[in-house]
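EI: anyone free to look at a 705-residue chain?
SC: sure, send it
EI:
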Amino acid sequence: ADFDSLASAVGLAKLWSSSPKGSSGGTDDDDDDDGEEKNKQKVIPTFVVLPRGAHPAVQKFLSLHKHLFPIRSLKSLPSDLSGLHRLGLVDAQRRDRIGPAEHLLSYAKRVTVVDHHIDGETDIPEATDYVVEKVGSVSTMIVERLQQSQLELSEAEATLLALGIHADTGSLCYDSTTPRDAFALSWCMEQGASQAAIAEHVQSSLSVEQQGVLTQALINTNSTVIHGVTVSTVLLSADGFINGLAAVTQDALELSSSDVFLLAVVYDPKAGHGRNKRGRGNNKESPSKPMDFRLKSKLLQQQAKQQEEEEKTNSAMLPSSTYDTESWKAGEEALRRKRLRAAFDRKDIDGSGYLERNEIAAAFAASGVIATEDAVDALMESRDLNGDGRLDFEEYVAFATDAEKWQKEQNKKSGQKACTMIIIGRVKAGINMKDVNLNRLFQKFGGGGHAKAASATARLSDENEASTLLQGLVDELIDTSLLKQPTVGDFMTAPVLSAKPTMNEKQVEDLFTRYDVRALPVVDDNNDVIGLVTYKEVAAAKQRFWNKEQKRLRREAKEAKEAAAAAVAAAQNRTTEETNTTSTNNKKERKVDFGKEANAKRRNQQQSGSALKGWMKQHVQLVEASMTMAEVEAVLLNTDVGCIPVVADGTKQLVGMVTRTDLLRQHRYYESLHYHNKGFADSIAARKPIIELRKKLKKFDLENE
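SC: here you go
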């Protein structure tokens, strides 16, 4: 059970066992029960049973809070179940999710199923009340009914229900989250939920066992990229059931930078039960012999493969006569010991001549086997004959001999061994994974969950079936869910307006204002993209033009002042000879006329502005029309630009523009952004009037005036 299952069960128990102030204490809307039956129902004691145990994080929480909730074990229920009035199943719709509590279905007078997996199918015909709603967690459904019944929660109950909502909605971050989840969480906080307890338990650390699984998962991960989606799988073998694999899979998904991660673990269910008992301290005996040899046989298979490769190498390097001579002189046993010595040296990492515990664990890891500390300790106890805490070469030879004998005995048998395979799947949110539905994918094995987080358990008659089964899941996932990504040419903005390198600031600004755009590609006469101009470049160019104008005005004012001073000086010298005065005035007139002509010419040049090619963005990033959406998003991230010109493949011919809005439209984050680009989605015939109108408007552009 996870936090959502536990919290919803505790909340349902409170709902059924309390006397509500406002409404009935059920989760269904049926009114077929009379008032007397409802009154009886209110006083019937209600308990919570976790038939399949609890997640490690839940166990940690219950170690401090269990006495605050009406939780009982399945074994503690009375043997006579004829008085079982009502049975509630939360966060589950199938019999295999109930496990050993399945027999309770036949005794209950009413069976209520409360779930939020709307795509799931139930196989419980005994269900009299079936309540399934599209929300992020079952705890939300229970909280709403507790709120309607005007029931007050204790601090511990509010905290548990808040944890249930946090866990199944990813703290309101999963795409399955609804506004109802947020309101329910808010009400739990108002009821006194402890934020300190939530912060401590909602993100629990992995146990040592889980950390070992995570390490092996990352080492042995196989990844492939399909249509831009990274699908990673890993198949591991364990000596028993491992709890908390969901958290391991989630961490592996994030650490491996995968989009889809499938973790499969094969184990012997019988060995798993024994290991769990030892983990709780109820059984201090060493692991059973069959499980111990199963681990060793895995190690031996890896060793045999390495020896086979060495034999091929030796055969290629040494003459066959030399190799046969060595076998003839010392016999097959000497050759076998020589091979074992080579394998021993490879596992002896530090070269000490002994195998310590860490080296044995590393050897298990190299063979893809998750070996617990109990398994390593059992191996050391059974094979460390002199008790020095390490294995020497002779002890290793004895171990290999016994393992080979056991392997031969197994080969004489059918070679098939029943086992259990658990599969956990996690998917990142994203437009490329929108069609991935793990719940539907795992239903063939009786599993289920959410579309982006699900699990399944398969019983195999032979361990060798595991890899085939996992590969079949991946193939089905690729064929049905991973569709080809749209290319830039499918959603770009087209046709687009462009600017010419000969335009000035005023002309470019006029285009921005007239067509309500903030950026334009700059193309030459061949329609090749040579730059980009945005409103920032226009604003900077206008600022430079303004600064030049201010400088010109200051200069002209200074010249006018100097001319006035010269006129005053000329008036004071009227006693000068008339011929000299006339000559001087003619020169001044010619000088003033020349100055006016120069100023007028310079003013005309300044008013026309500078050419766009001098201040546009050059060496801009271009994308080809065949690039995928993910590739364009990576370009936007690296260049930090809001729009990119789109060119035909292998050329610089402008065919469109892709903007942030285009990408947001493809992600479908917001309903206000229409998914289809109307300008591009229409046919050529439909777009022809727009194109013709733009051609007619061209004659009104400033450069043609």
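EI: The longest strand covers residues 229-238.
SC: 👍
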